[in-house]
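User: Can you predict the 3D structure for this chain?
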Amino acid sequence: MGMLRWVGFAAGIGLLFATASSVVKTLLVPRSATSTIGSGLGWLVRRAFGAITARVEDLRQRERILAFSGPAWLLSLLVAWLACLLLGFGLLLWPLNAHSFPSALEEAGSSLFTLGFVRPAGAASTVVVFVAGASGLVLVAMLIAYLPVLYATFNRREIPVTTLEALAGNPPWGPELLARQALIGDVAYLPKVYERWTEWAADIAESHSNYRSLVYFRSPNPATSWLLALLAVLDAAALNLAFNPGTAPPEARPLMRVGYIALRKLAMVLGMPVPDDPHPDDPLQLTRAEFDAAVDRMRRAGWVFEREPDDAWPHFHGWRVNYEAAAYALARFLDLPPAVWSGSRPRHRPPPQLPVRPPHREPTDAPRSRLGDGGGGPP
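Assistant: Here is the predicted structure, written as C-alpha cells:
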C-alpha cells in the first residue's frame, strides 16, 4: 500500500505538470500551441454539439444551439483543469498523511477552492496545501483576465463582418460584392474594401491561431460567419483580378496573399491537411457552370468585363486554388451556415441560397399606400 501511495505521488506530479502546460499554452503563450487536454475537450464539445444539431434543419435554431459551443469549450476547460488540480494535489497529499485517498482529496479540495475546513498535518502537507490554494486562485484570476481580451478580439472581428452584409449580401458572396458595387456605380470603393480586409485577415490569422477558442465563437447573425465573409472577399478579389487585369485595384493582390495564408494557417492549427503550395492547374470543387452563373449575375448588374469568361476562368482558377481547400475544410469543420461557393455541409442541411438583393428604390418612386413605408436608397 505504501508503494502504491508513492506511485500515486509521482503520477500526481505528472498530472500537475500536464495541467500547468495546458493552462499556459491556452491562456499565456502567444502562439499556436496545442495541449492534449484542450484538443481532447475541443473534439468532445464539437462532437456533442454536432450530435445535438445533426437533424435540426432550421437555421436560426441550429445557430442558436451552436452559439454555445465556444463558451461550452471554455467552461469545460475550466472544469477539467480544476478536476486535474484536485486529483493531482490529492495524489501528492496521499502519502504525506495517514489518511485514505478520499481524505486526501478532501484536504486538496479544501485548499484548492480556498474553503479551509481541513487543517493540514505536517510541514510537507502544509506546503502542498499552500501551493494548491495558490493554484486555484491563479487559475481563476488568469481566466478572468483572459475573457476581456477574448471578447474584445471577437468584437473587432465581427464589425467588418457586419459591414460586409450591406456590400455582399447575407450570407456574403464574392460575385454579389462586385455586382452591388456595379449597380450603385461605386466600384471605386473596392480598394478600401480590399485594404481593410487585408489587415483584418492578418488579425484573424494571429488571434485565432493564438487563441483557438475564438474559432468556435460564432457570428451573431445566424446566416453568416467570419469565415464565409473572408471567403466572399477573396472570391471578389479573385474575380476582379481575373476579369479586369488592367483596372483591378492593386490592393487586391496583397489581400489574396494574406487571405489564403490566413486560411491555411488556421486549417493547419486545427489539424486539417491542406496543400501548402497548390499548383494553379490543381482541380477545384467549384464548377465552371457555377462560375458562369455568377458571371451572368455580374453582367446583369452592369459589371464591365475586360476579359471574356473563357479567358478569365484559368486566372480565377489559379487564384482560388490557393484557398478553396482550406476554406471548405474549415466551413465543414465548424458546420457553418449553408452558403454558395463554400463547399458541402453535413447531411440534413438545406441547400444554400443566393443572397437576396434589397429592392432598388428612388425618391421619385410612387409612394406606398401604407404609412411608414418610406423609400430607400440603392443597395
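Residues 2-144 form one domain. The first helix runs from residue 2 to 27.
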